[in-house]
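Rotation project, supervised by the postdoc (A.L.). Task for the rotation student: set up a whole-complex structure prediction and record inputs and outputs verbatim in this book. Inputs entered:
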Amino acid sequence: MATLATEHVSVSYPGQRLAALADVSLTIGADDLAVAIGPSGCGKTTLLNLLAGFIRPNRGRVLFDGQPVTAPGADRAVVFQHGALLPWLNVRDNVAFGLRLQGVERVARRARADEVLELVDLPQAAGRAIWQLSGGQKQRVGIARALASQSRVLLMDEPFGALDAFTREQMQELLLKVWAQSRRSVFLITHDIDEALFLATRLYLMSPGPGRIVEEVQPGFSQRYRAGESARAIKSDPRFIALREHLLDTLFRLRRQEEAA
Amino acid sequence: MNPLDTTFEAAPAPSPEELPDSTDQAAPRLTPARLRVLSLLAFVGLWWLLAHSGKIPPLFLPGPEAVLAKLGVLATVGFMDATLWQHLGASLARILLGLALAVLIGIPLGVLMGRVDVARALLDPLVEAWRPVPPLAYLPLIVIWFGIGELSKVILITLQILAAVLIATAHGVRHVSPERLRAAESLGASRRQLLWHVVLPEALPDIVTGIRIGLGTGWSTLVAAELVAATRGLGFMVQSAAQFLATDVVVLGILVIALVAFALELGLRALQQHLAPWALHKN
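Outputs recorded:
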């Protein structure tokens, strides 16, 4: 069972009065699709960078299966907003890149890449160049690359933030399918409340000044999607809308308090 | 096999100007490609007219056909104990040796400057101070140190190409996308793997651009250096032909020098497209 957790972590950047993150504790379980959401400056990117091991906390600890995280590692693959793909490799070799770094031999890693491309509905593009792909296809390749390696957690940095609304909906459904089939835990950050509510098994609402978690919710809509309900039906469900308004209300209330202070 | 598999290797689509013009065969249109040919033909025509106007003696301006005839003589009999090919070969050998040395030194040093802040801080002022100095200004010093033989010319060329390769490599390496580096790190890349699988491939288009610029300036420097001191080479050929007032050889030499520069540029552009086709598609 893979669990990724932070214990009372704080991060401050030099020259900034308020901490980017103050005393944040969370636990991402093996079956979780955890989503952090909040306005810019709330520290969600800092949180993801901590979990990935790109940065280290000033206080507190980041633990993966009980072991302290001190550096990036192949067990925690990151998916970036713009894909961060390698344009000198074709789609298949991009997906197989992590395996190549591990020294997996060519035939085996290509077979594995084709398998994962199938999973993200992109098998026909294996031989294509990166610059021939659309934005949504690039994100699929980024996800496939993270899945092909032996990563156990996917850390997704606003993965659908640069996509148009229609592609974004498709990618959300694809992510739920991949998450269910690949048995990885996922930590995703976004600034889209509908996206967060639809995807999350655990939702962390974050607020700036200093960056912190202000509310934790377990929406449960992704489980309903997996049980067969359609995405649009879920997103227009009164309970979905009520929860969305509640979260927005909380954020606006906090902002008013902050401005008054 | 997926037919799309081949598209990555395939040459980029020809630009519209290179596509055959199928619209109107009776009246050929003035496409940019045709205008280029026209411009060259007009130049040769003007040259021919001037040379045959009777106002300019052949000693000052031999006609194009006389220069072309001289090509046959130079290619077989030669000039100053060497055929045109031997002169050309001597010049090419110098510049290729200089290029090889510059690449061998420049790329590792450029990577070091691009990746290590201390190395950059130490080397940058030296490179920036030395780069704008015209090479012929320090050629005399090189001749004092290394004599007038092959060595000094190769050193001069190497220094000239090295400056361009070094600066371009350092720039390319420094501007590698931090997201790509992080993506590779999160897939378990070691420092060494980052260098081989991310940094160098991403810097490659910049490195080739540096080589292109270096070869261009290196070629002009070489020919100028051969004018000063050499016993073989295109620059030497032109210089000694001028002393014997063999104007046709001078003109022919200049044309060959221009053609080689043009061929080097085209060859490197083709190499760049072959090595880094993705660089043409910015995203």
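Student's summary: DSSP finds ten helices and no strands in chain B.
Supervisor addendum: The radius of gyration of chain B is 24 Å.
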